[in-house]
Design a protein that fits this description.
This is Major facilitator superfamily (MFS) profile domain-containing protein. The chain is mainly α. Helix content is 70%, strand content 0%. The chain has 25 helices and no strands. The two termini are 32 Å apart.
Length: 518
Amino acid sequence: MDADQCLEEPLIGQEVHVESNTEQSPESAEEERSQEPDDSLLNPWKNHNVRLSFLLCIVSGIADSIWGSVVLSGFLFALGKAMGKTKEDNTLVGLAEMVQGLTMLIFALPIGLLADKTGKARVVRWGGALLLLTVGITLWALLVINREASESQRAADQSYYIMLVALGLWGICGGILNGPSQALFSDSIPKGRRSELLTYLYSSYLISAAVGPLVGIIMLSQSNEEDWSLEEIFPVFFVGVLLEIPAGVLCFFFSEKYTVPEPDDEPRPVDESIDTLSVDNPEQTETANSAPSLLNGYGLTKAAVPYVLFFSSLVVSLGSGASVKYFPLFFKEIGLRSEVVQGIFLTVPVSISFFSFVSQKISQSMGRVETSVMFNVCGVLMLYFMTWLSRDIQEGDTSRRILIVGVYLLRTGIMNCPYPLLESILMDAVPSNQRARWKSLESIASFGWTGSALLGGILSDSHSYQYTFAITATMQLVGGLMLIPIQHLVEREQVEPISDEDVADETRTDLEEPLLTS
Protein backbone atom coordinates (compact mmCIF):
# COMPACT_ATOMS: atom_id res chain seq x y z
CA MET A 1 0.00 0.00 0.00
CA ASP A 2 1.35 3.40 -0.93
CA ALA A 3 1.89 5.93 1.84
CA ASP A 4 -0.08 8.55 -0.04
CA GLN A 5 -3.23 6.45 0.20
CA CYS A 6 -3.87 7.84 3.64
CA LEU A 7 -4.45 11.24 2.03
CA GLU A 8 -6.53 10.16 -0.98
CA GLU A 9 -9.84 11.38 0.40
CA PRO A 10 -10.37 14.98 1.50
CA LEU A 11 -10.26 15.68 5.20
CA ILE A 12 -13.03 18.22 4.94
CA GLY A 13 -16.48 17.12 4.10
CA GLN A 14 -15.89 13.38 4.30
CA GLU A 15 -19.23 11.59 4.33
CA VAL A 16 -19.24 9.29 7.33
CA HIS A 17 -22.90 8.47 7.93
CA VAL A 18 -24.95 5.83 6.21
CA GLU A 19 -27.82 7.07 4.05
CA SER A 20 -31.17 6.06 5.42
CA ASN A 21 -34.38 5.16 3.62
CA THR A 22 -36.38 8.30 2.90
CA GLU A 23 -39.54 6.60 4.14
CA GLN A 24 -38.15 6.11 7.64
CA SER A 25 -39.00 8.49 10.43
CA PRO A 26 -36.20 10.72 11.68
CA GLU A 27 -36.13 8.78 14.95
CA SER A 28 -35.75 5.36 13.31
CA ALA A 29 -33.21 6.69 10.83
CA GLU A 30 -31.15 8.14 13.67
CA GLU A 31 -31.33 4.85 15.59
CA GLU A 32 -30.26 2.82 12.55
CA ARG A 33 -27.41 5.21 11.80
CA SER A 34 -26.17 5.09 15.39
CA GLN A 35 -25.95 1.29 15.26
CA GLU A 36 -24.12 1.11 11.91
CA PRO A 37 -20.37 0.40 12.29
CA ASP A 38 -18.20 3.27 11.12
CA ASP A 39 -15.72 2.30 8.43
CA SER A 40 -13.19 4.87 9.65
CA LEU A 41 -12.85 2.93 12.90
CA LEU A 42 -12.33 -0.36 11.08
CA ASN A 43 -10.08 1.03 8.32
CA PRO A 44 -7.35 3.19 9.88
CA TRP A 45 -6.55 4.84 6.55
CA LYS A 46 -9.95 6.58 6.76
CA ASN A 47 -9.59 7.60 10.40
CA HIS A 48 -9.57 11.33 11.05
CA ASN A 49 -6.78 11.27 13.66
CA VAL A 50 -4.61 9.00 11.52
CA ARG A 51 -4.87 11.25 8.48
CA LEU A 52 -4.27 14.32 10.56
CA SER A 53 -1.20 12.70 12.15
CA PHE A 54 0.27 12.07 8.72
CA LEU A 55 -0.30 15.69 7.70
CA LEU A 56 1.20 16.95 10.96
CA CYS A 57 4.17 14.61 10.58
CA ILE A 58 4.91 15.74 7.03
CA VAL A 59 4.51 19.46 7.77
CA SER A 60 6.58 19.39 10.94
CA GLY A 61 9.17 17.14 9.31
CA ILE A 62 9.74 19.64 6.51
CA ALA A 63 9.83 22.64 8.86
CA ASP A 64 12.05 21.00 11.48
CA SER A 65 14.54 19.79 8.89
CA ILE A 66 14.93 23.29 7.43
CA TRP A 67 15.82 25.10 10.62
CA GLY A 68 16.08 22.63 13.49
CA SER A 69 19.48 21.03 12.97
CA VAL A 70 22.27 22.33 10.74
CA VAL A 71 20.82 25.83 10.32
CA LEU A 72 20.14 26.23 14.06
CA SER A 73 23.67 25.15 14.95
CA GLY A 74 25.12 27.48 12.32
CA PHE A 75 22.97 30.38 13.54
CA LEU A 76 24.01 29.92 17.17
CA PHE A 77 27.65 29.53 16.13
CA ALA A 78 27.55 32.77 14.12
CA LEU A 79 25.64 34.48 16.91
CA GLY A 80 28.48 33.66 19.29
CA LYS A 81 30.89 35.54 17.05
CA ALA A 82 28.53 38.53 16.93
CA MET A 83 28.42 38.44 20.74
CA GLY A 84 32.20 38.72 20.84
CA LYS A 85 32.61 35.21 22.28
CA THR A 86 34.47 33.51 19.47
CA LYS A 87 36.28 31.16 21.83
CA GLU A 88 32.98 30.02 23.34
CA ASP A 89 31.04 29.27 20.15
CA ASN A 90 30.70 25.55 20.80
CA THR A 91 29.76 26.18 24.43
CA LEU A 92 26.93 28.50 23.37
CA VAL A 93 25.63 25.90 20.91
CA GLY A 94 25.87 23.19 23.56
CA LEU A 95 24.05 25.32 26.13
CA ALA A 96 21.17 25.94 23.71
CA GLU A 97 20.88 22.20 22.97
CA MET A 98 20.94 21.47 26.69
CA VAL A 99 18.12 23.94 27.38
CA GLN A 100 15.92 22.33 24.73
CA GLY A 101 16.67 18.80 25.93
CA LEU A 102 16.33 19.68 29.60
CA THR A 103 12.88 21.25 29.22
CA MET A 104 11.72 18.19 27.31
CA LEU A 105 13.08 15.99 30.08
CA ILE A 106 11.42 17.98 32.87
CA PHE A 107 8.01 18.34 31.24
CA ALA A 108 7.70 15.07 29.31
CA LEU A 109 6.29 12.88 32.05
CA PRO A 110 3.95 15.54 33.54
CA ILE A 111 2.62 16.19 30.02
CA GLY A 112 2.01 12.48 29.51
CA LEU A 113 0.27 12.10 32.86
CA LEU A 114 -1.87 15.16 32.16
CA ALA A 115 -2.83 13.79 28.75
CA ASP A 116 -3.81 10.42 30.19
CA LYS A 117 -5.94 12.13 32.83
CA THR A 118 -7.60 14.99 30.94
CA GLY A 119 -7.53 13.68 27.37
CA LYS A 120 -4.79 13.45 24.77
CA ALA A 121 -6.59 15.57 22.17
CA ARG A 122 -7.04 18.42 24.65
CA VAL A 123 -3.34 18.45 25.52
CA VAL A 124 -2.43 18.33 21.82
CA ARG A 125 -4.63 21.40 21.25
CA TRP A 126 -2.87 23.17 24.10
CA GLY A 127 0.38 22.15 22.44
CA GLY A 128 -0.78 23.74 19.19
CA ALA A 129 -1.39 27.04 20.97
CA LEU A 130 2.01 26.83 22.66
CA LEU A 131 3.65 26.02 19.33
CA LEU A 132 2.19 29.15 17.72
CA LEU A 133 3.40 31.23 20.67
CA THR A 134 6.84 29.65 20.36
CA VAL A 135 6.97 30.47 16.65
CA GLY A 136 6.30 34.10 17.53
CA ILE A 137 9.09 34.19 20.13
CA THR A 138 11.53 32.52 17.73
CA LEU A 139 10.72 35.05 15.00
CA TRP A 140 11.23 37.81 17.57
CA ALA A 141 14.73 36.46 18.28
CA LEU A 142 15.47 36.45 14.56
CA LEU A 143 14.10 39.94 13.94
CA VAL A 144 16.14 41.40 16.80
CA ILE A 145 19.22 40.39 14.89
CA ASN A 146 18.87 42.30 11.63
CA ARG A 147 21.27 42.65 8.72
CA GLU A 148 23.48 44.90 10.84
CA ALA A 149 23.50 42.28 13.59
CA SER A 150 27.13 41.33 13.11
CA GLU A 151 28.03 44.90 14.11
CA SER A 152 25.67 45.05 17.08
CA GLN A 153 26.82 43.05 20.09
CA ARG A 154 23.83 44.19 22.14
CA ALA A 155 21.37 42.92 19.51
CA ALA A 156 23.25 39.63 19.35
CA ASP A 157 23.07 39.23 23.14
CA GLN A 158 19.33 39.92 23.15
CA SER A 159 18.72 37.54 20.26
CA TYR A 160 20.63 34.72 21.97
CA TYR A 161 18.77 34.98 25.27
CA ILE A 162 15.39 35.22 23.54
CA MET A 163 16.37 32.18 21.48
CA LEU A 164 17.17 30.26 24.69
CA VAL A 165 13.61 30.92 25.89
CA ALA A 166 12.23 29.86 22.51
CA LEU A 167 14.28 26.65 22.46
CA GLY A 168 13.06 25.81 25.95
CA LEU A 169 9.48 26.14 24.68
CA TRP A 170 10.35 24.06 21.60
CA GLY A 171 11.42 21.33 24.00
CA ILE A 172 7.97 21.36 25.61
CA CYS A 173 6.27 21.38 22.20
CA GLY A 174 8.40 18.44 21.16
CA GLY A 175 7.31 16.55 24.26
CA ILE A 176 3.67 17.09 23.30
CA LEU A 177 4.04 16.22 19.62
CA ASN A 178 6.12 13.13 20.39
CA GLY A 179 4.00 12.07 23.36
CA PRO A 180 0.23 12.67 23.50
CA SER A 181 -0.04 13.26 19.75
CA GLN A 182 1.51 9.93 18.79
CA ALA A 183 -0.28 8.15 21.62
CA LEU A 184 -3.57 9.42 20.17
CA PHE A 185 -2.42 8.16 16.78
CA SER A 186 -1.98 4.68 18.26
CA ASP A 187 -5.36 4.91 20.01
CA SER A 188 -6.94 5.49 16.60
CA ILE A 189 -5.54 2.29 15.06
CA PRO A 190 -6.97 -1.21 15.66
CA LYS A 191 -4.64 -3.60 17.41
CA GLY A 192 -2.79 -5.64 14.81
CA ARG A 193 -2.33 -2.71 12.40
CA ARG A 194 -0.11 -0.47 14.52
CA SER A 195 3.32 -1.52 13.26
CA GLU A 196 2.11 -1.05 9.67
CA LEU A 197 0.75 2.44 10.26
CA LEU A 198 3.67 3.46 12.47
CA THR A 199 6.04 2.37 9.70
CA TYR A 200 4.22 4.63 7.23
CA LEU A 201 4.21 7.50 9.74
CA TYR A 202 7.91 7.05 10.48
CA SER A 203 8.75 6.92 6.78
CA SER A 204 6.63 10.00 6.09
CA TYR A 205 8.64 11.98 8.62
CA LEU A 206 11.95 10.66 7.28
CA ILE A 207 11.17 11.48 3.66
CA SER A 208 9.77 14.91 4.51
CA ALA A 209 12.85 15.59 6.65
CA ALA A 210 14.98 15.17 3.53
CA VAL A 211 13.30 18.29 2.10
CA GLY A 212 15.03 20.54 4.63
CA PRO A 213 18.61 19.97 3.48
CA LEU A 214 17.49 20.41 -0.13
CA VAL A 215 15.80 23.73 0.65
CA GLY A 216 18.83 24.84 2.62
CA ILE A 217 21.24 23.93 -0.18
CA ILE A 218 19.13 25.77 -2.77
CA MET A 219 18.70 28.92 -0.68
CA LEU A 220 22.31 29.03 0.47
CA SER A 221 23.59 28.49 -3.07
CA GLN A 222 21.63 31.57 -4.20
CA SER A 223 23.10 33.74 -1.46
CA ASN A 224 26.04 36.07 -2.08
CA GLU A 225 26.71 36.50 1.63
CA GLU A 226 29.69 35.10 3.49
CA ASP A 227 29.45 31.37 4.18
CA TRP A 228 27.63 30.57 7.44
CA SER A 229 27.21 34.21 8.35
CA LEU A 230 24.10 35.50 10.11
CA GLU A 231 23.11 37.30 6.92
CA GLU A 232 23.25 34.07 4.92
CA ILE A 233 21.52 31.87 7.50
CA PHE A 234 18.72 34.31 8.42
CA PRO A 235 16.37 33.73 5.41
CA VAL A 236 16.64 29.93 5.66
CA PHE A 237 15.95 30.02 9.40
CA PHE A 238 13.04 32.43 8.91
CA VAL A 239 11.34 30.29 6.24
CA GLY A 240 11.71 27.13 8.32
CA VAL A 241 10.14 28.69 11.41
CA LEU A 242 7.24 30.14 9.41
CA LEU A 243 6.45 26.64 8.12
CA GLU A 244 5.85 25.54 11.72
CA ILE A 245 2.63 27.60 11.77
CA PRO A 246 0.55 25.04 9.80
CA ALA A 247 1.74 22.36 12.23
CA GLY A 248 0.40 24.38 15.15
CA VAL A 249 -2.93 24.91 13.40
CA LEU A 250 -3.33 21.18 12.65
CA CYS A 251 -3.03 20.39 16.37
CA PHE A 252 -6.43 22.02 16.99
CA PHE A 253 -8.31 19.40 14.95
CA PHE A 254 -7.43 16.21 16.81
CA SER A 255 -10.33 14.57 18.63
CA GLU A 256 -10.87 11.70 21.05
CA LYS A 257 -14.05 10.87 19.10
CA TYR A 258 -12.11 8.91 16.52
CA THR A 259 -10.22 6.58 18.82
CA VAL A 260 -10.82 2.85 18.36
CA PRO A 261 -12.47 0.92 21.21
CA GLU A 262 -10.31 -1.97 22.35
CA PRO A 263 -11.59 -5.34 23.62
CA ASP A 264 -8.97 -5.25 26.36
CA ASP A 265 -8.19 -1.89 27.91
CA GLU A 266 -5.78 -3.42 30.38
CA PRO A 267 -2.72 -5.52 29.57
CA ARG A 268 -3.31 -9.20 30.24
CA PRO A 269 -1.11 -10.75 32.90
CA VAL A 270 1.01 -13.59 31.64
CA ASP A 271 1.71 -16.39 34.07
CA GLU A 272 2.32 -19.00 31.41
CA SER A 273 4.25 -18.18 28.26
CA ILE A 274 2.67 -21.23 26.61
CA ASP A 275 -0.66 -19.41 26.46
CA THR A 276 0.96 -16.49 24.69
CA LEU A 277 2.72 -18.68 22.19
CA SER A 278 -0.47 -20.53 21.35
CA VAL A 279 -2.05 -17.21 20.38
CA ASP A 280 1.06 -16.21 18.45
CA ASN A 281 1.44 -19.44 16.56
CA PRO A 282 -0.43 -22.59 17.61
CA GLU A 283 2.28 -24.74 16.05
CA GLN A 284 4.75 -23.50 18.66
CA THR A 285 2.71 -24.81 21.58
CA GLU A 286 4.26 -28.25 21.43
CA THR A 287 7.77 -26.76 21.51
CA ALA A 288 6.83 -24.54 24.43
CA ASN A 289 5.45 -27.51 26.36
CA SER A 290 8.68 -29.41 25.88
CA ALA A 291 10.91 -26.55 27.08
CA PRO A 292 8.99 -24.34 29.51
CA SER A 293 12.08 -23.42 31.49
CA LEU A 294 13.64 -21.74 28.46
CA LEU A 295 10.75 -19.31 28.16
CA ASN A 296 9.77 -18.84 31.78
CA GLY A 297 13.29 -18.61 33.18
CA TYR A 298 13.29 -14.81 33.05
CA GLY A 299 10.37 -14.57 35.48
CA LEU A 300 8.79 -11.68 33.57
CA THR A 301 5.17 -10.89 32.85
CA LYS A 302 3.62 -8.58 30.28
CA ALA A 303 3.70 -5.78 32.83
CA ALA A 304 7.49 -5.73 32.39
CA VAL A 305 7.38 -5.20 28.62
CA PRO A 306 7.24 -1.36 28.60
CA TYR A 307 10.03 -1.16 31.19
CA VAL A 308 12.30 -3.46 29.19
CA LEU A 309 11.56 -1.46 26.03
CA PHE A 310 12.39 1.80 27.80
CA PHE A 311 15.72 0.66 29.23
CA SER A 312 16.69 -1.00 25.95
CA SER A 313 15.91 2.22 24.08
CA LEU A 314 17.86 4.25 26.64
CA VAL A 315 21.01 2.12 26.28
CA VAL A 316 20.81 2.19 22.48
CA SER A 317 20.22 5.97 22.49
CA LEU A 318 23.16 6.61 24.79
CA GLY A 319 25.37 4.58 22.51
CA SER A 320 24.08 6.29 19.37
CA GLY A 321 24.48 9.75 20.86
CA ALA A 322 28.20 9.25 21.34
CA SER A 323 28.68 8.95 17.57
CA VAL A 324 25.80 10.44 15.59
CA LYS A 325 27.09 14.03 15.81
CA TYR A 326 30.51 12.98 14.58
CA PHE A 327 29.77 10.96 11.46
CA PRO A 328 30.01 14.10 9.23
CA LEU A 329 33.39 14.93 10.78
CA PHE A 330 34.48 11.32 10.32
CA PHE A 331 33.65 11.52 6.61
CA LYS A 332 35.57 14.78 6.42
CA GLU A 333 38.55 13.08 8.08
CA ILE A 334 38.65 10.30 5.49
CA GLY A 335 38.73 12.89 2.71
CA LEU A 336 35.13 13.33 1.49
CA ARG A 337 34.05 16.73 0.18
CA SER A 338 31.28 18.64 1.94
CA GLU A 339 28.79 18.24 -0.93
CA VAL A 340 29.37 14.48 -0.86
CA VAL A 341 28.64 14.43 2.86
CA GLN A 342 25.43 16.41 2.25
CA GLY A 343 24.44 13.83 -0.35
CA ILE A 344 25.05 11.01 2.13
CA PHE A 345 22.72 12.54 4.69
CA LEU A 346 20.08 13.19 2.05
CA THR A 347 20.14 9.47 1.26
CA VAL A 348 19.97 8.27 4.87
CA PRO A 349 16.18 8.84 5.28
CA VAL A 350 15.52 6.81 2.13
CA SER A 351 17.60 3.93 3.48
CA ILE A 352 15.84 3.95 6.85
CA SER A 353 12.40 4.18 5.23
CA PHE A 354 13.13 1.27 2.87
CA PHE A 355 14.36 -1.04 5.61
CA SER A 356 11.45 -0.02 7.86
CA PHE A 357 9.02 -1.53 5.36
CA VAL A 358 11.24 -4.59 4.94
CA SER A 359 11.41 -5.18 8.69
CA GLN A 360 7.65 -4.74 9.07
CA LYS A 361 7.00 -7.41 6.43
CA ILE A 362 9.51 -9.81 7.99
CA SER A 363 7.99 -9.30 11.45
CA GLN A 364 4.65 -10.67 10.26
CA SER A 365 6.17 -14.15 10.04
CA MET A 366 9.17 -13.93 12.36
CA GLY A 367 7.76 -11.76 15.15
CA ARG A 368 8.43 -8.15 16.10
CA VAL A 369 10.99 -8.75 18.86
CA GLU A 370 12.90 -11.35 16.85
CA THR A 371 13.00 -9.04 13.82
CA SER A 372 14.15 -6.08 15.91
CA VAL A 373 16.97 -8.07 17.51
CA MET A 374 18.05 -9.49 14.15
CA PHE A 375 18.29 -6.05 12.54
CA ASN A 376 20.04 -4.67 15.63
CA VAL A 377 22.74 -7.34 15.45
CA CYS A 378 23.19 -6.82 11.70
CA GLY A 379 23.52 -3.05 12.16
CA VAL A 380 26.06 -3.47 14.95
CA LEU A 381 28.18 -5.86 12.87
CA MET A 382 28.15 -3.40 9.97
CA LEU A 383 29.32 -0.56 12.24
CA TYR A 384 32.20 -2.74 13.45
CA PHE A 385 32.98 -3.52 9.81
CA MET A 386 32.91 0.17 8.84
CA THR A 387 35.24 0.96 11.74
CA TRP A 388 37.68 -1.71 10.57
CA LEU A 389 37.51 -0.53 6.95
CA SER A 390 38.44 3.05 7.87
CA ARG A 391 41.75 2.13 9.52
CA ASP A 392 44.83 3.66 7.88
CA ILE A 393 42.91 4.72 4.78
CA GLN A 394 45.16 6.15 2.08
CA GLU A 395 44.48 9.44 0.31
CA GLY A 396 43.93 7.88 -3.12
CA ASP A 397 41.93 4.87 -1.95
CA THR A 398 38.62 5.87 -3.58
CA SER A 399 37.19 2.36 -3.71
CA ARG A 400 37.48 1.93 0.04
CA ARG A 401 35.80 5.29 0.63
CA ILE A 402 32.91 4.24 -1.61
CA LEU A 403 32.63 0.97 0.32
CA ILE A 404 32.63 2.83 3.65
CA VAL A 405 29.82 5.11 2.46
CA GLY A 406 27.80 2.13 1.21
CA VAL A 407 28.26 0.26 4.49
CA TYR A 408 27.26 3.38 6.44
CA LEU A 409 24.04 3.84 4.46
CA LEU A 410 23.10 0.17 4.87
CA ARG A 411 24.06 0.17 8.54
CA THR A 412 22.08 3.32 9.34
CA GLY A 413 18.97 2.03 7.57
CA ILE A 414 19.17 -1.40 9.20
CA MET A 415 19.93 -0.06 12.68
CA ASN A 416 17.09 2.47 12.77
CA CYS A 417 14.36 0.57 10.91
CA PRO A 418 12.94 -1.41 13.91
CA TYR A 419 11.61 1.76 15.56
CA PRO A 420 7.99 1.33 14.33
CA LEU A 421 8.01 -2.32 15.47
CA LEU A 422 9.19 -1.42 18.97
CA GLU A 423 6.73 1.46 19.10
CA SER A 424 3.84 -0.85 18.21
CA ILE A 425 4.94 -3.33 20.91
CA LEU A 426 4.88 -0.52 23.47
CA MET A 427 1.47 0.73 22.38
CA ASP A 428 0.06 -2.82 22.50
CA ALA A 429 1.59 -3.50 25.92
CA VAL A 430 0.03 -0.57 27.78
CA PRO A 431 -3.64 0.42 28.10
CA SER A 432 -4.93 3.48 26.31
CA ASN A 433 -5.07 5.53 29.51
CA GLN A 434 -1.30 5.09 30.04
CA ARG A 435 0.05 5.46 26.51
CA ALA A 436 0.79 9.18 26.62
CA ARG A 437 3.00 8.91 29.70
CA TRP A 438 5.00 6.01 28.25
CA LYS A 439 5.39 7.76 24.91
CA SER A 440 6.54 10.90 26.71
CA LEU A 441 9.21 8.95 28.57
CA GLU A 442 11.06 8.53 25.28
CA SER A 443 12.26 12.10 25.69
CA ILE A 444 14.42 10.94 28.59
CA ALA A 445 16.32 8.80 26.11
CA SER A 446 16.58 11.87 23.88
CA PHE A 447 18.15 13.88 26.70
CA GLY A 448 20.57 11.04 27.39
CA TRP A 449 21.52 11.26 23.71
CA THR A 450 22.51 14.91 24.26
CA GLY A 451 24.65 13.99 27.25
CA SER A 452 26.47 11.15 25.53
CA ALA A 453 27.27 13.42 22.57
CA LEU A 454 29.62 15.37 24.86
CA LEU A 455 31.28 12.13 25.99
CA GLY A 456 31.63 11.04 22.37
CA GLY A 457 33.43 14.27 21.55
CA ILE A 458 35.87 13.78 24.41
CA LEU A 459 36.58 10.19 23.35
CA SER A 460 37.03 11.20 19.72
CA ASP A 461 39.53 13.90 20.70
CA SER A 462 41.49 11.69 23.08
CA HIS A 463 41.44 8.53 20.94
CA SER A 464 39.75 8.47 17.51
CA TYR A 465 36.38 8.36 15.79
CA GLN A 466 36.85 4.63 15.26
CA TYR A 467 37.31 4.11 19.00
CA THR A 468 34.07 5.97 19.71
CA PHE A 469 32.19 4.04 17.01
CA ALA A 470 33.31 0.74 18.55
CA ILE A 471 31.92 1.81 21.92
CA THR A 472 28.69 2.87 20.22
CA ALA A 473 28.34 -0.51 18.51
CA THR A 474 28.91 -2.35 21.79
CA MET A 475 26.27 -0.33 23.65
CA GLN A 476 23.79 -0.76 20.80
CA LEU A 477 24.36 -4.52 20.88
CA VAL A 478 23.74 -4.64 24.63
CA GLY A 479 20.57 -2.57 24.27
CA GLY A 480 19.27 -4.76 21.46
CA LEU A 481 19.93 -8.02 23.32
CA MET A 482 17.98 -6.66 26.30
CA LEU A 483 14.83 -7.33 24.26
CA ILE A 484 15.31 -11.11 24.23
CA PRO A 485 13.64 -11.75 27.64
CA ILE A 486 10.33 -10.29 26.39
CA GLN A 487 10.28 -12.28 23.16
CA HIS A 488 7.79 -14.84 24.50
CA LEU A 489 5.58 -12.09 25.95
CA VAL A 490 4.94 -10.26 22.68
CA GLU A 491 2.30 -11.65 20.36
CA ARG A 492 2.57 -11.42 16.63
CA GLU A 493 0.23 -8.83 15.28
CA GLN A 494 -3.26 -9.89 14.35
CA VAL A 495 -6.25 -7.63 13.92
CA GLU A 496 -8.64 -8.01 16.82
CA PRO A 497 -12.31 -7.79 15.82
CA ILE A 498 -14.28 -4.81 17.03
CA SER A 499 -17.82 -5.59 18.00
CA ASP A 500 -20.68 -3.63 16.49
CA GLU A 501 -21.70 -2.61 20.01
CA ASP A 502 -18.29 -1.09 20.71
CA VAL A 503 -18.31 0.79 17.42
CA ALA A 504 -21.87 1.97 17.94
CA ASP A 505 -20.98 3.28 21.38
CA GLU A 506 -18.12 5.26 19.89
CA THR A 507 -20.05 6.56 16.89
CA ARG A 508 -23.51 7.19 18.25
CA THR A 509 -23.21 10.91 18.88
CA ASP A 510 -20.42 12.29 16.79
CA LEU A 511 -20.06 10.72 13.37
CA GLU A 512 -22.52 13.03 11.66
CA GLU A 513 -20.02 15.89 11.93
CA PRO A 514 -17.41 16.58 9.24
CA LEU A 515 -13.90 15.35 9.98
CA LEU A 516 -12.56 18.86 10.43
CA THR A 517 -14.61 21.13 12.63
CA SER A 518 -13.99 24.59 13.91
